[in-house]
Amino acid sequence: MIDRRSFIAGSGAVLLTAPLGAEAQQPGKVYRIGWMIGSSVSASAPLIDAFKQGMRELGWVEGKNIEYEIRAAEGKLERLPAIAADLLRLKIDLFLTPTTAATRAARNATTTIPIVMVIPSDPLGAGLVDSLARPGGNVTGLSGMGMEIGSKQLQILKETVPPASRVSVLLTTSGPNAVRVELERAAKALGIQLQVLAARGPEEFDGAFSAMIRGRSQGLIIDSPPVYFLHRKQLAELAVKARLPAMFGSREYAEAGGLMAYGASFADNHRRAAVYVDKILKGAKPADLPVEQPTKFELVINLKTAKALGLTIPPSLLGRADEVIQ
Question: Whose CA is closest to 258, among 301, 311, 288, 314?
Answer without folding.
Answer: 301
